[in-house]
Amino acid sequence: MGFEPSSRAQELIGRVEDFLRTEIEPIEGEIHTAIRAADDPWQPLPAFKDLQAKAKKQGLWNLFLPPSEHGNEQYGASSEEGLSNLDYAPIAELTGRSFLAPYVFNCNAPDTGNMEVLLRYGSSEQKQQWLEPLLDGAIRSAFCMTEPDVASSDATNMAATAVVDGDEVVINGRKWWSTGVGHPDCELLIFMGLTDPDAHRYARHTMVLVPRSTPGVKVERLLPAMSRYDEPHGHGEVSFTDVRVPAANILVGPGRAFEIAQGRLGPGRVHHCMRLIGLAEKSLELALQRGTTRTAFGKPLVNLGGNRERIADARIAINQARLLVLQTAYLLDTKGLAGALSEVSQIKVAVPRMAQDVIDMAIQLHGGGGLSDDFPLAAAWTSARALRLADGPDEVHRGVVAKIELSKYTKESK
Amino acid sequence: MGFEPSSRAQELIGRVEDFLRTEIEPIEGEIHTAIRAADDPWQPLPAFKDLQAKAKKQGLWNLFLPPSEHGNEQYGASSEEGLSNLDYAPIAELTGRSFLAPYVFNCNAPDTGNMEVLLRYGSSEQKQQWLEPLLDGAIRSAFCMTEPDVASSDATNMAATAVVDGDEVVINGRKWWSTGVGHPDCELLIFMGLTDPDAHRYARHTMVLVPRSTPGVKVERLLPAMSRYDEPHGHGEVSFTDVRVPAANILVGPGRAFEIAQGRLGPGRVHHCMRLIGLAEKSLELALQRGTTRTAFGKPLVNLGGNRERIADARIAINQARLLVLQTAYLLDTKGLAGALSEVSQIKVAVPRMAQDVIDMAIQLHGGGGLSDDFPLAAAWTSARALRLADGPDEVHRGVVAKIELSKYTKESK
Amino acid sequence: MGFEPSSRAQELIGRVEDFLRTEIEPIEGEIHTAIRAADDPWQPLPAFKDLQAKAKKQGLWNLFLPPSEHGNEQYGASSEEGLSNLDYAPIAELTGRSFLAPYVFNCNAPDTGNMEVLLRYGSSEQKQQWLEPLLDGAIRSAFCMTEPDVASSDATNMAATAVVDGDEVVINGRKWWSTGVGHPDCELLIFMGLTDPDAHRYARHTMVLVPRSTPGVKVERLLPAMSRYDEPHGHGEVSFTDVRVPAANILVGPGRAFEIAQGRLGPGRVHHCMRLIGLAEKSLELALQRGTTRTAFGKPLVNLGGNRERIADARIAINQARLLVLQTAYLLDTKGLAGALSEVSQIKVAVPRMAQDVIDMAIQLHGGGGLSDDFPLAAAWTSARALRLADGPDEVHRGVVAKIELSKYTKESK
Amino acid sequence: MGFEPSSRAQELIGRVEDFLRTEIEPIEGEIHTAIRAADDPWQPLPAFKDLQAKAKKQGLWNLFLPPSEHGNEQYGASSEEGLSNLDYAPIAELTGRSFLAPYVFNCNAPDTGNMEVLLRYGSSEQKQQWLEPLLDGAIRSAFCMTEPDVASSDATNMAATAVVDGDEVVINGRKWWSTGVGHPDCELLIFMGLTDPDAHRYARHTMVLVPRSTPGVKVERLLPAMSRYDEPHGHGEVSFTDVRVPAANILVGPGRAFEIAQGRLGPGRVHHCMRLIGLAEKSLELALQRGTTRTAFGKPLVNLGGNRERIADARIAINQARLLVLQTAYLLDTKGLAGALSEVSQIKVAVPRMAQDVIDMAIQLHGGGGLSDDFPLAAAWTSARALRLADGPDEVHRGVVAKIELSKYTKESK
Lengths: 414, 414, 414, 414
Description:
4 copies of one chain form a homotetramer. Chain A has helices at residues 7-37, 46-57, 85-95, 101-104, 111-121, 124-136, 257-293, 307-335, 341-366, 368-371, 377-387, 394-407, and strands at residues 140-144, 161-165, 168-179, 186-194, 205-211, 217-222, 235-246, 295-296, 299-300. Chain A is an alpha+beta fold and 414 residues long. Chains in contact: A-B, A-C, A-D, B-C, B-D, C-D. Chains A, B, C, D: It holds the Pfam family Acyl-CoA_dh_N.
């Protein structure tokens, strides 16, 4: 009853917690400082690679993988091993407490989503070539969907092209917010582009696997997200000029991109939201620590003005948000995406906003320190804010929730 | 997994739903109209008594009763029969959709709380005299705690006195917001007053069973709550002037009032909050019906401006609130009040505010109709608003949540 | 500079303040109690009539009248006497502090708007017959526009008919929220109805003066607004069945209703908003009085939790709202309605919401007392809430503001 | 009447507007790009120096200077030349539309505040040495008040010391958020430190003029404010180790720091707030441009969901905030700081929050672009967010407003 994790998940949660406390937290500050001080912050640090090796060795690796319903046992996603969404959720929450952790455990976006896509939709060859090294952590990947020149909140606006030309696909256009493309190990781009403008609205686009080294692929620049470049992963603007790859690099088939994207959405949003809940929880902890140890006007900060009420409101908001995400995970597990469509959009609206507000409160309690990088709050804020746009802006998700709500009342048009 | 009700609860939920749809909803409007038109709106209508008789006959009666841990099998609260908080919660939600339903099913506050108190803390004699007719629906009761002359949000402020004088208790003082006291069948008042001002802060007060007909008891007036008198139950201001009852009418013993009150709180707040969730859900339904059937500026209302976003936000808010209440019910069932103290206060803050906002939105979508009594929305709003003060104002509950949160960080004083 | 009133206005403000303090406030509570206790609360009390007589004698009467630009000197609206919107605004604020005051000074809606309409658009005969007794306070009037069967937020939806038939007009249909129609002195209804469905959208409707005693006029019922009937004025639902009045009762001419309504809007909304600011200011004062004189947990309420912050926020919100209304009044005075269209809608959105929030805060600080009628807060809340729908819902006014904002950027369609 | 600027101010406003449109806006983007691309972003660009020279030549220079009440005519602050707060306010709003403009016109914080301090409180020698080159734009200055080790929201917490030792002052301690200290021309630090811990709470601290080149002064690091370093001005953490300067460098006298700080506050906060209003106004314009030119789901963005309502709310919020700041400026001009204490704190609470919300809305309408630096929105957001802490956190200012509000009701202690 309730949303308690299985005993296997419980054991993993305990080990992830230990790892965070003993391996990551003690050196996290140093790593961030080292990145900032580095001549080239886009080179991953050896200390970071060491952490990955330790996590892998302890089996705290690729925990995001779902139970295998697709015969992917050889990739570690056997039904014995894969965790349900509900079981993985608390692990995602824990990894969200640290900006390093998702990478340390090979559980970071967009690689997780890309691996899921390959797992579910990739051919044997595609899996062998790309999924294996991704699962191994040997390479990184990016997802090239959003475009600078159109309102990409309406994904059918996407204008970059993927034209089948004999046994090749020719790719042209410009993408941005290709997260991870700044990393030197990023070797795979999953590109989504327009193939058949005359097909049904949701059958026009194709997903193609594009090796980053293909001629015509150019990372034009790396973009700051609310002033942060998020090195060494980064967010890129990428141009594709007459890029040619074999037609065998198409995922599933031409015009199938939306179908594939659908399958990627549910768990990905649960992961994002659970990580944000971890971040909000961490921020509340920092607020409590600061508020109980600093003094102004003769009292601990926490006893001034409305600070206690804000702490209570933060607790209430976090708890409500977590339950909604767990419920969504549970629905995904038991009813599939079709049974959780509204909820997946609900969490995407509720959680980033909640996190942004909780973090804002924590910043305020930290005074000037909260604005600096001496605490992870400024970075946390950025992360929550960006998620109100990434993966669909709040407004689009509210539209989805409303549409489903209204469908009970009317044969309603849009 | 999740918060699904047991199969027994599921079956009861279905029957309550049917009863609401077939027995209550078709005549609800008429009953409210009849009350408003009555010469004496404080006389319960025969139609209402008929509904009670039907519900009782169908076994949809006293469903709020907890599983018996106290040997109260003879009162229907056998472990086979009593529902857990988690199982009763969806029934409470259903009854909250109608202002009549809680009374029809003998599941209305404050009688439920009073019956629970008698069940847990009453002597055999007290149970026989008062609990039996209450369970039977033959009489009604009120709870006399809040006082007009002190800030009762701090319950230790209570100044009305219950002085033990030999084998009698002498009661003096003034109470208000004694809900239910306007009903002609109200025969029992549970009075809470100061007995020993020198005892520990939480051991000064005593609970006494006071027959309403005792000399010196006077209902001074009936109070409107945000302009509604809520006939035929009402909220009374009651004066006690040298009221004498046998010392045997004391519950448990002198100075034990806070201890008893504690035990009454958890389930009572879950009930209140679940009923409000039912009310919010009903209000959202009304908003959707109105919004899809009325037209302005050439479109259904729901397609104007931010209306769809507001509907989405309402759905998200209701779902989050419901999950938090279910989680609280689950904690009460599995860890007792001590394990759910923060959550009980969390729901008391979150749910009435959420309901008030959802109802406000629904009113706005109904235009002038929303302000009138042609829809249950104005009454719904009052109900939610009052709950932000009744049973402890939001601010006090936020204080409890913050205190618990802070206790992890500091040996903090208040 | 700034928004200081003229010296003449300053003098009137002082006298209105004195009148409120010495004549109205001391007996206001008694009057409300007397209304509630009356056998027939719809009969105005002698005490109230006495107050009107005093105010009239002191020249604190019809102060809402604008400077005469229309040769209406005989009605007291000479340019020497009429106050600008900016000068009247602080008087309106003062009258808003008391529910009686607007009536005592003959400055209450909808009579003020109706008098303005007659002043500006009435023929000499219409003025003599209706304006004179209204200015004198001998009769009351109502405005019949909103309809129960259509979304009246889109005024072009209005479906009740005013058909010219020779030298008569035939009126049919149903109106509601006809405020003031419950008063025994209400003799005039200004009816707005559809005359020519084929004309331009804003030229279809006509305003007609309908004596309440005309055969076919029936007050079907009086409506509670958020549970209050607002006796002795009330809000009525009125049916019109083959009501015939002379064509001479048409205001200006057939199809001119929207044009007339326009002229009525600006000042009326400034009045409503300034009265609400007075009500918010009064509510804040009550909150401060209660908060400094009641004690809980060993402190004055005001020093608990976030109460001081809420008081600061209320002060900031009231001040901002007042400045926006004064600026709107100033624009109306200097640039006319065309130069203040956006601002008139801005205040209509901002002020009732602000007042509702400030009053809600004050209620919360009053505990159970705030819900009762022992303080004017429950009634104040109703008044603010209703204004979020009356005279156009928030959503419609936000639409106006946005439309004007967008007009700078685009030849925008609707 | 109203808050219209004087004709002299009107003329200046027009010229500042022209300068912004023709000189700054066309090259603003390039300058920001050049700073980001520079090997050393801390070196001011020649293009920027050129702009300053042009502005100076046109007399658009030091416009922040108040009318001289202190015989400072020689510094250009003659009563003929100095602008009242109300007259300068719209100019400050204009400069707030561009991050460069305040510097171009020599009207940027903290130099303006520092110049005002020298103007009002400096000796002739101090003025000659520091004020003249500051007014000339030849040097820059910083203000060293906030400390990393104490909650500086309570300024009496300041622990860095300024000890008088014969004819010298010895300074020790650590300050941060010393804005402007990153600039190569920054030559003056105004340091505020503890001199006499036994004096009255507000007479313990001293302000000292410290040349940046004094031995013992060290800029330990430059701090990011919500991830931005704001080159080439920056925010520094500065250590002072046995720094010795002549006692003649003390402003006014030992223990007079709070007195001086007071005088600096009012106008400074009006400037900050008006600049933020300019920034909010600019952000709303960008939102409208983007919203009318981008299309999704077949409509311009502005016609989707609640976007129009959000635009209306932004307009209403900006207008209310501007009026409150203008009113505050007017009070400062007519009643001095003592007559505007509450208002100065009111704007400090209301305006940054308003600006943060409006900018957040504009970001959301820009999608991914809003997160990037392709639009000034991410930087605008940072600026508004930081102002909720800089110059006193919201919570402290709410406390001031509440204290003043309460002072009418009670001889209240804090």
